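Handout, section 4.2: multi-component inputs.
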Amino acid sequence: MRRRKNNWILHLVLTACCLAAIFPIIWVLSTSFKPEPEVFSDRLNLISEHTTLDNYRHVLTMKGGVFFIWLRNSTIIALITTVIGVFLAATAAYAFSRYRFLGRQGGLYIFLIAQMFPGAILVVPLYNLMRQFGMLNSFAGLILAYSTVSLPFCVWMLKGFFDTIPRGLEEAAMVDGLSPLGTFYRIVLPLSLPGLAVTAFFSFITAWNEFMFAFTFMSKERLYTLPVGLRQFVFQFQTDWHLMAASAVLITIPVVIFFLQTQRFLVAGLTAGGVKG
Amino acid sequence: MSLLSKIRRHRLAYLLILPTALVMAGIVFYPLIRGVLISFTNMNQYNMGSKFIPPSYRFVGLQNYVKVLTSSQFWDILGQTLIWTITNVFFHFTIGLALALLLNRRFRGRAIYRTLLLIPWAVPTYISAFSWRWLFNSKYGFFNLALKALGADPIPWLSHQVWAMVAVIATNIWLGFPFMMVVLLGGLQSIPREMYEASEVDGCGRIRQFWTITLPLLKPVALTVTLLGIIWTFNMFNIIYLVTEGGPHHQTDILATFAFIEAFHQWRFGMATTYAVIILSILLSFSFFYIRTLKGSEEIY
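Output:
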């Protein structure tokens, strides 16, 4: 009897927290389907009687559908960043986890220090560097920059994950004639799927969501990523709340889909000394 | 063993690190060192040089640092940064821990709650900032419309010193608790169940279990994630810049946003990088003491 009562309170608390967590998103979703005059009125309703797709139509068709070019750019950049990010994080984390090499401790601290310099200020010297190497207005430059943003955290987390995989497995595989790299690729990586999924998730959302670098490095309209393009043509005036809401929903959908695919790995990926290192 | 043979013995390790080391050196550390050097110059928009004009900024020694550290504005903003960081990390941690403890029980629908609670984390930061700006909008925003419906006066959210701080902190708490929650949940789930079972046999109550088993075993994870949280929140640029732009009158600015405004609104790169180096020094010395104090009792790395 006592248990049932506890459960009732548990569900109540969690439901309230979930509502608070998703309410801002729900409200934007609701705004995005309202006709303009209703957005700018003092009526407080979640679902309008005049639900409309006009806001979406406007965003998707502005300037001859340039939205889809930005969508393509963002997708290409985010996917390549994910592949590179997972590759870099996995190789480095494996070295940190398995070898006691000279500079190991220092290397781990350096990743922590890298987080302490405000990223927004790195943009200035980085811009000059990119200009010197002719990498402004190129996907390659942006992808390189993005792959470093979530790297320290991913290396740290993956290292913790690799630490939990028993070495005995690798030793057995090596006795069977697998090379060290072969062991890493065939034994350790398949066992680390949750950790790799979390790394992929981090790399993807970092690249998909980033604004500052893309805004500074890309000056050609057709090379914009989704956040930059929408900022330039929708968010610029800060008054078109109905159009901003529709754009916000459009940008968020792919992230949420990606998130729902990987979220079941999140807890497992961060468990077992994940961050403890 | 000589240095060279030591290095040779771990050839494979260095090979595995190489790609990451190269990328980090080029994209993070080279610009970082350049930034530190710029902080000793008077670089601004006019003397920084371009494709056609050679740069003409010069070395000014510690002038920028003296200027910053003797201005009362710096100390005001440092105070705001501390309020911002401490309040946020406190709520991230307590809310995160409470929810992690609830989600660590076994009951039906747990996965759905967990997924929904993680949503704020998955949403792009600038979209979250936009959503909250819209909720806080003084005329058509949800909060003020709701207050009006209840017969209360509207609140000047983004334009009043205190309310603006409340607004940005609320936004950032919403944004940051899921990360703490999921990491602490990971930590909780790695505590072996047998420990709880054994203590139950010994007649240990829930509250005692929490103090004697859960907290001590969660400590390493909690300490690390708190340090990360402090560093990230201290440097959290997006939310403040996008929700209040540091206003009104820099009263919601923190050091990171103020540095950005110096760089890209005032175009004083020397001053901006000085702020950045000061941020770096504060965080470095803080982390040093944090890790050293805790290393005695608990292994962090």
